[in-house]
Amino acid sequence: MAYVITSPCIDEQAADCLDSCPVDCIEKGEDQYLIDPSICIDCGACEAVCPVDAIFYEEDVPEEEESFIAKAKAYFDA
Fold this sequence. Notes:
- This protein is an alpha+beta fold.
- The protein has a single domain (3-77), classed as 2-Layer Sandwich (Alpha-Beta Plaits), CATH 3.30.70.20.
- It is built from 4 helices and 4 strands, in the order βααββαβα.
- β2 and β3 form a beta hairpin.
C-alpha cells in the first residue's frame, strides 16, 4: 500500500508534499504530483501538509477518486 494524490492536486499543485517526504517518492507528472507506490514508506508526512486534502492512504481513497491509484501506478510503471 501507499499514499495516493487525487484530483484536488490538479488545480492546486502547492508542492508542500515534496519537502515533507523523507524518501523523495513524489514527482511532478503532466498535470499533478504523483507518489511512487514502490518507494512510499507509508509515513503520512505528505498527507499532513497537503493544503487541499488531496492525499489519502490507498485503502482510504474515496470511491470517486480511485482512478488516481491506477494513474500513479501507470505513471511509475512507464
